[in-house]
Amino acid sequence: MPLDRYRNTALVDGIDVRALPLAGDSPAPASQGKQQQQQQQHWFQRRLVQDTVGSGYVEFGDTKVLCSVHGPMEPKRSVLTDAGAEQSRAQLQVYYKLAPFASHQAGRVSYLPDETERRAASFLQDTLAPSLRLDRLPKSRIELHCLVLEDAGCCLATAVNCACLALVDAGLEMYDLVTAATVCRPVGATDWQLEVGDGSNSGGSSSVTLAYMRSLRQVAGMLVEAAEPLQPREVSAACRICEDPCKMTHSSLRQFLLDCLPADDRTAKIA
Amino acid sequence: QLLSEPERQYIFDSVQDAVRIDGRQCLAYRQAALRLDLLCYATASAQVSLGETDVLVSVREEDNPGATAQQQGSTGSVVAAAQQQQPVSHPVSVWVDCSCLGSGPEQQQLADEAQAHLSSLYRCLRTPTPVFVDILLLGYDGDLLDAASIAASAALMRALPASLLSAQALPLFATVHRIGSQQIVDANQLEESCSMARVTVGVDSNGRLVACQTCGEGSLQFESMTEMIETGVRKAMMLHDSVAKLVARVL
Fold it and tell me: Exoribonuclease phosphorolytic domain location, by residue (chain A) (predicted)?
């Protein structure tokens, strides 16, 4: 696969990904005996959507996700909630939708959000809320719209990365960048493999998605979709395996955001 | 639930000292009641009340359209006819209705989340005829998922033939909340509004996970998350024992 020379690949150390095994490939002889390190490059871009406060676009393999942030705007009032307590923090509302042409396996997706999309939206909300400083924006609401243009695997984790990029682009204060990764395991297999956006995971496998905040060293969210019953220690082991890809994505995203700054603003880099 | 800041702090501080506001231990469930076979038009039904949380579940099997009139006498023979004719497998379809609590956005969000969780709990279950699980929330005081999973699993065990269940009990949810440095299970509505993060685990009768998710607007350390998963598995096994004894007493 020729590398696209016009893209900012955002990796500081130039690792040639074509030499590394991906999920679904048979392991190369050179990697036997060593821990398999599977990675694929993310491609980030910001400011893609014009009429928003902030927007982000992430490609991970063939998976493409676009996020846009609107707000702060007037909060939704509810008769039941107490005006004082509820409005001391901003309300974060996440909308998640697959484009009708997005899915490889499911064919055309309906215009109305279905159960999977609602679940993904609430997962995104629970994952991004810990790192956002919502208390800095009382009496307001922030809307995050997440649109998946192509789903070739690792869709939810890519959406988390994209949403984080969009929120940073919008200038909202955050405690830390939230990055996510997914590992999957076919039914009957023993090893967890990193899920990449190449369409190799066609359903029928268990997956564990972990959203991690590297600097705070805390888990922002975790979702297990099991195709077979799993032992608790297998789930914990899968979460630990997700930690390294999350850290690498965190470095890539941080480097990309620093490179976006004008040259004279880059002097305050923290190593 | 409306809570002032001093009340929230009171609940938080007392849980740190392992005292809950209704006097329970941190890892103790409330008094629960399970009733079976309440509805005459459903294939099976169950009602669970866990404190003030009251859940009514109805399980209906759709008749196989290819079955002849004489085979539609009882549901058991319809299922047998379906298995002989067409081994088509259907996933279990779950619907949660919170309209008894009101029609606001919070109730709809509660219903949506519960529906997503319960659908993922029965993801591995396949039936020859379409099965519809309708969950009606009659009262809410926290811990909806645990109560709904007990009722739905008990009703499904009554409705489905034993050959389909392969002599195993259906999975149950256990939700573990984290308040400060303490873990609690079976939180009521006040405690739920004080907890920052929770882990919901769906566990089958062999102690294996079929679903696991963290929720809530707080973050967790890795070790805390692993401990909460282990606590959830332990409590779910305890729930499996209690439910098995209750169902055996009814049968």
Answer: 48-173
